[in-house]
Amino acid sequence: MPLKIAIIGAGLIGPRHAQAAISNSSTELVALVDPAPSGPAMAARFHTRYFPSISAMLAAAAAAASDDDESNFTKPDAAIVCTPNDTHVPVAKDLLSAGIHVLVEKPLSTSVASGLSLLRHAAKPEHSHLKLLVGHHRRFNPYVVKTKELVESGSLGRIIAVNGLWTLYKPPEYFVPPTEWRRSRAAGGGVILINLIHDVDVLQYLLGPIVRVHAERTLPSRPNPPHDAEDGAALTLRFASGAVGTFLVCDAAPSPHSFEAGTGENPSIPRTGADFYRIFGSEAALSVPDMVRWSYDGRDVKSWTQPLTVERVEVSRDIVPLEAQLAHFVDFIEGRAEPRCTGREGLRALVVCDAVRRALESGMPVEVEDVDRMVEERDEAGL
Fold first, then answer.
1. Taking 90 as the threshold, does the pLDDT of residue 52 lie above it?
2. Is the pTM here over 0.85, yes or no?
3. Which residues contact 376 (CB under 8 A, 6 or more apart)?
4. Angle 233-238-243 (CA atoms, 0-180°, nearest 5)?
5. How are beta strands 309-312 and 78-81 bridged, if at all?
6. Contact 33/60 with Cβ under 8 angstroms?
7. Where do runs of H (alpha helix) occur along 253-320?
8. Quick one: which of 174, 27, 92 has its CA closest to 346?
9. N or C end of the chain: smaller count of CB under 10 Å?
10. What is the pLDDT of residue 317?
11. CA pair distance 289, 277, nearest whole angstrom
12. How many angstroms separate the CA atoms of 124 and 204, rounded?
């Protein structure tokens, strides 16, 4: 029997999740929840039930269960949270309290403290049968899957360094109501929590934990007020493995170098194919997403005086990451898979982004807190 799915939030990403739920034979889209005036039309577009709030959805399910109406609407088995960043934690908690499995879009939260509170809420005995997954869907992107394969196989040797870019231009209309929260730091807006957190998660997925960061702010490009969130930063990174990295993030510069433009993953952003990661190992270097591997394989001598061997690694582009993530969510709920991105993994990315923001404020390198120790200390303290 298909898993009944509700989409909470019908903004930029919600419709894409709704389409994934419709496309998956193991899921049934049963509801769309959004208080915005556009909500009913969006629900009609996907031929599903509309509710202005989670409480209204739960009330409808309770009424149908008690034979007070004839709608036959039943409570969803699972929900995907696509609401503004600062609402992720309260919305996810409400769903878990109602006995509904949750896939919450990144970021897990807008603060480390509230992210920890969600993990604690999900760990309560009464919620132990429920699953919480964080929507860092790029872990399912075929370019990331293949890159992880190459890193873990030793094809690049020991990883020495990484260089990354996420640079493009967001027009003024990206920040107008009802999504004006994107320009507010307090609401979880800004390029760090909206965009950089994706790359932080991917880099940690590929190379392990980031343990120290330093950051320099780019020139401000938008009026403050109303914009008080960051629009760019240049970072240096230290990984627990000893590898180091640099990363430039900016949403105010026309550029072909970003994950979305490079891979064509987001249908609203034209594909450029330009690289956004360069990974340097002791045996080879790899650029992504052109997937060109540079080495001295086959040469008599490993030396800068020798011509490099160039190999293009093939990647299948048939996988749609959001669809693959949903299929994984179903498998996780039904006990057929270990979670790809747990709440704790989502918190790891958030903790690094919090360290980046603190580095921007202080002008000094910031040590990244150990998430496992943080969670254990909070548990021991009963917080």
1. yes
2. yes
3. none
4. 125
5. unpaired
6. no
7. 259-263
8. 92
9. N
10. 83
11. 8
12. 28
